[in-house]
Amino acid sequence: MKIALVTGASSGMGREFARQIVKLYRNLDEIWLVARRTERLQELEKEFTVPVRIFDGDLNRDYIYERIEKELERKNAEIRILVNSAGCGLSGCFGEREQDTELRMVKLNCQSLTRMLLLCRPFLGRGSRVINLASAAAFAPQPGFAIYSASKSYVYRLSMAIREEWKPAEISVTVVCPGPVDTEFFAHSGELLGKSNKVTKVDPKAVARKALLDAVDRRCVSVYGTSMKVARIAGKLLPDVLSAYLMRKLNGI
Ligand SMILES: NC(=O)c1ccc[n+]([C@@H]2O[C@H](COP(=O)([O-])OP(=O)(O)OC[C@H]3O[C@@H](n4cnc5c(N)ncnc54)[C@H](OP(=O)(O)O)[C@@H]3O)[C@@H](O)[C@H]2O)c1
């Protein structure tokens, strides 16, 4: 059975990925959607003609992985495309929030994404594609968004490394690094600080479309929009200490 698996499918970019995947991948037997909000996933299911399997659960808990793994084995599934979109951010200075809240973010963005990749690897075949959602926040250390940007640097680096490891198996990995996107993300994260808050939020449909096309082309990194492409180049050219200083000024700290 050929499937697509999308985490974070109940809103924002994950939902857009799911919508666009079913149009782009015509030979899927099923699409599997993962997130905590069951009703949202059921609403999305109504839009699709391809059969949907819903995994409603918390990616920071064990049971969801056990359910997914059991189903992958039972259905002898081949994951043609895996999108790891579940993630969250919290703006503000280091230590301003409850420790548990900050640690849940690190767990979701880093550990859960890694666990999903480990779980899915045996079910990815030749020509399968993986899309991991990092962020433009991965390009430089970000005072005022420190833990989030560090967690997304992890996703960025991990994606680059496994992309090379998985090349002989013809599994491609694309890491997506958007700037601010108009989703529910900011309702949970709080608004960005200082001048970062003034950056225009882009449409999640456009980010997902570009990422899927970049994945088709087996590109390593997908960056939507000129300003974020410039941010990527700046992140490569400037020493980290200078980037961190400039980001502190930009964030008004
Ligand atoms: N929006 C931006 O500006 C932006 C920019 C760069 C990168 N990103 C990254 O892009 C990805 C998607 O973000 P988005 O903008 O689409 O945000 P979003 O609209 O808030 O979507 C986040 C998704 O993650 C799911 N999720 C959150 N916690 C979860 C948990 N513990 N277990 C299972 N699912 C969980 C949410 O579903 P439930 O609440 O139903 O569980 C939701 O479907 C994230 O990794 C984010 O870091 C976002």
From TrEMBL:
Keywords: Fatty acid biosynthesis, Fatty acid metabolism, Lipid biosynthesis, Lipid metabolism, NADP, Oxidoreductase. Pathway: Lipid metabolism; fatty acid biosynthesis. It comes from the Bacteria. InterPro entries: NAD(P)-bd_dom_sf (IPR036291), Sc_DH/Rdtase_CS (IPR020904), SDR_fam (IPR002347). The keyword Nucleotide-binding does not apply. Gene3D superfamilies: NAD(P)-binding Rossmann-like Domain. Belongs to the short-chain dehydrogenases/reductases (SDR) family. This is SDR family NAD(P)-dependent oxidoreductase. It comes from Dorea hominis. The lineage of its organism: Bacteria, Bacillati, Bacillota, Clostridia, Lachnospirales.
